[in-house]
Design goal:
Elements lengths: L8 H6 L20 E5 L2 E6 L15 E6 L4 E8 L19 E2 L5 E2 L2 E5 L8 H14 L6 H7 L2 E7 L15 H8 L14 H14 L3 E5 L29 E3 L4 E5 L3 E2 L5 E2 L7 E6 L2 H6 L10 H11 L29 E7 L3 E7 L2 E9 L1 H4 L1 E6 L5 E6 L4 E4 L1
Parallel strand pairs: 2-4, 7-8, 8-9, 9-10, 14-15, 15-17
Antiparallel strand pairs: 1-2, 3-4, 5-6, 7-18, 11-14, 12-13, 16-17, 18-19, 19-20
Helix pairs in contact: 2-5
Protein name: DNA polymerase alpha/epsilon subunit B-domain-containing protein
GO biological process, one term: DNA strand elongation involved in DNA replication
Keywords: DNA replication
């Protein structure tokens, strides 16, 4: 798309570096935007009323039906996208109940939990809230109904921003630091402001959680990992004792997991003979969706509409590498959706939203997960019915809603 407000790397290089660059705009959408269709032979400008509702962003693969107007424009009357990719077990019917029994009478776990934006290290309140989360998932708090509900959670996926973002280099963290900076210092006596406490606190929470359930942790924009997508997983050694548990898994983002639903026998072993369906989960920390939201007006297009559109485009991050930095790939694009996921979870979003997207027998539960530090929301998705529950956790209140 030809957008006047789109960032230009050549302008960044040619800018006078003695002047600070202006802050990037929240939206690069404007009334002067033009939609261009490009292939090996060249490009042509697309026009037509249908484009206003198409939710197009840079990089989308599309087929268009229309006619050449004769003045270098192409009048579009219809658009064709790839559609949702094939799905494993798409002929299977979804059950309406997530709590069920195995053949030996034991209860099978029925939920997977999603969370993002723990922001450990930002404020003492955020760490207290994370402690409530840990106690809830391990069954150490809440009433009997809440503990029974939590016992059905078999897996936790942390969708980025587990640690609070660092402030600008040299910026004081509080008033005490302001007074400290006013004091004269001898050369070589300036102490560093780095604190290992946030990482140690995150490691302690992961250590407690990994003893009760499987934990997948994906890096986010504020986490100590490379910022270029696919964002590589942080080293396991960073998480201390939690790294010794095989149930604690550090992943790159975006990440796809295939979860065979297995039945726990009475002795704790796993019986793979259960009849529950296998679920495919596609999880990201939200950077692609955050970037795509800049291309469209705030209303009526929503982030949930864009997330649904990526399933029909079969691509997670079409704006990369134009406005979203990514590694160069020549043989295989890691952002292509070759199989429709049963659960499509996107973290670090402004607010919670969910939708069950259907295309024939293919269906995918799209979930936008907000910051836990700001909202206290833990999202639960039923592995059989794909129904969604919200658990609101604060320092003194735990509530469930579905």
């Amino acid at each position: 798309m030809d957008m006047p407000l789109k960032p230009n790397v050549l302008e960044d290089i040619g800018r006078d570096h003695s002047l600070p660059a202006p802050p990037p705009p929240e939206k690069i959408h404007s009334q002067d935007d033009q939609v261009m269709l490009e292939d090996e032979s060249g490009r042509i400008k697309l026009v037509g009323k249908i484009l206003a509702d198409a939710q197009l962003v840079t990089g989308v693969i599309v087929g268009v039906l229309g006619a050449d107007t004769g003045n270098g424009e192409f009048e579009v009357v219809d658009l064709c996208f790839a559609g949702m990719a094939p799905q494993t077990g798409e002929d299977d019917e979804m059950d309406t109940e997530d709590t069920f029994l195995c053949s030996d009478g034991s209860t099978r776990n029925g939920y997977i939990a999603f969370i993002s934006g723990l922001d450990i290290g930002s404020t003492p309140a955020s760490e207290a809230q994370t402690q409530v989360l840990t106690e809830y998932l391990t069954g150490a708090c809440g009433d009997l109904d809440g503990q029974g509900f939590a016992s059905q959670i078999s897996r936790l996926v942390i969708l980025g921003n587990s640690l609070a973002p660092l402030g600008p280099i040299g910026a004081p963290a509080n008033e005490d630091n302001d007074k400290e900076d006013e004091k004269p210092r001898r050369r070589g006596n300036d102490t560093t402001s780095f604190s290992p406490h946030p990482v140690q606190s995150l490691s302690a929470h992961l250590h407690d959680l990994s003893q009760s359930l499987a934990v997948h942790i994906l890096p986010g924009e504020s986490d100590p990992s490379g910022s270029i997508l696919p964002q590589q997983a942080p080293p396991r050694a960073m998480f201390g004792p939690a790294s010794s548990y095989s149930s604690s898994l550090v992943r790159q983002t975006p990440h796809t997991s295939v979860l065979p639903q297995e039945c726990k026998q009475g002795d704790g072993d796993v019986d793979p003979s259960g009849s529950a369906p296998t679920r495919t989960i596609l999880a990201t920390s939200g950077q692609p969706l955050n970037d795509m939201s800049k291309y469209v007006p705030t209303a009526p297009t929503t982030r949930l509409d864009l997330a649904e559109a990526t399933l029909k485009w079969r691509h997670i991050a079409p704006t990369a590498p134009d406005t979203l930095w990514c590694h160069p790939f020549f043989a295989l694009d890691p952002f292509i959706i070759s199989q429709t996921p049963d659960i499509y979870a996107i973290g670090c979003q402004p607010q919670f939203a969910t939708r069950l997207v259907k295309d024939g027998n293919r269906r995918s539960r799209v979930v936008l997960v907000p910051s836990f530090a700001q909202t206290g929301i833990l999202v639960l998705v039923g592995l059989r019915s794909l129904d969604v529950w919200i658990v609101r956790l604060t320092e003194d209140i735990i509530s469930h809603s579905g």
